[in-house]
Amino acid sequence: xxxxxxxxxxxxxxxxxxxxxxxxxxxxxxxxxxxxxxxxxxxxxxxxxxxxxxxxxxxxxxxxxxxxxxxxxxxxxxxxxxxxxxxxxxxxxxxxxxxxxxxxxxxxxxxxxxxxxxxxxxxxxxxxxxxxxxxxxxxxxxxxxxxxxxxxxxxxxxxxxxxxxxxxxxxxxxxxxxxxxxxxxxxxxxxxxxxxxxxxxxxxxxxxxxxxxxxxxxxxxxxxxxxxxxxxxxxxxxxxxxxxxxxxxxxxxxxxxxxxxxxxxxxxxxxxxxxxxxxxxxxxxxxxxxxxxxxxxxxxxxxxxxxxxxxxxxxxxxxxxxxxxxxxxxxxxxxxxxxxxxxxxxxxxxxxxxxxxxxxxxxxxxxxxxxxxxxxxxxxxxxxxxxxxxxxxxxxxxxxxxxxxxxxxxxxxxxxxxxx
Length: 420
Known about the structure:
Layout: E1 6-10, E2 17-21, H1 29-59, H2 66-95, H3 102-135, H4 137-140, H5 146-163, H6 166-170, E3 171-177, E4 183-189, H7 194-245, H8 270-278, H9 280-331, H10 333-340, H11 343-353, H12 355-365, H13 368-377, H14 382-391, H15 408-415
Antiparallel strand pairs: 1-2, 3-4
Helix pairs in contact: 1-2, 1-11, 1-12, 1-13, 2-3, 2-5, 2-12, 3-5, 3-7, 3-15, 7-9, 9-10, 9-11, 9-12, 13-14
């Protein structure tokens, strides 16, 4: 009779799963090969991608903006997550033994928790900073400085270090006997009572998943609404302009309603407009660049809206299965172990790890300015990037824009280039 008794310990912050096998299960070796390949791929992408971001943001002084300060903290935390989560979960799972000792058990568990906490708090800080910069640009300029960003980053690190103290305190090596009577160990949390464990996991579920998820949905939802209103305004302006050129309107309306949707005030100059409609050659020279700029703004806003949707979706896709499994395991351990042991918990782990390699792609590598800075940093196209830099000052980070009288519409337009 082939009996498999599996006990799974899931770490709520890093999806650390250690499988204790009292009897040798029938596990296909092909699955181990697939796991090794996938885990190695995610590990390499995470380490390589986040290291590139750290180097680029540190070397390039022009990239040291408010948002990029948060992105640097995010890259460091994601790098920590890749280093302390992936190898120290995959290797013990394959060997069915935590071979790194009691000191590393406490150290690894602690840094696992810190890295995931800082990563989540950084995502929330970026969302709030983007909301303030785009939806309340004039007010945000008074406090959105690099010194303020450094204080927020320091607070997130201190808070994360304090919150995750239970991990080194309660993490211990638990011995067990394998099928060949060899004593092995697993690194797990030993709580004093079950009520404390349940309270801990519910707390982590709230502060590391539910609350950050709600904040990101609200912030990016409001940003998307602001950008959508900018798109609508651009389309109406385009219609009005085409009406003027066709002789249907004598001038542009400065505002279509009394709400905050009126982003800019267009000066009324009927004589000038009439003269411009009479001069065909002048119209061709001035309206074409304006039309091209308008189309570029519309495309940029739509692209940013899609990117914001992807950011929120990836956060929930990566972390919802893990926190669901942790909550399930805390309140019904027997059924959770029966359902999640083996391949399911392993791929839930992998899904959570992908956030460490997805964040660099979404926040930086999809951005043109970051790619140019990356090439310039490693000397591939230093001169072309330097020449283009002067021609595209409008592509600068939102925090670098000057002028107190900048309108909300113009602020939103500049913000569509992305965070890097």
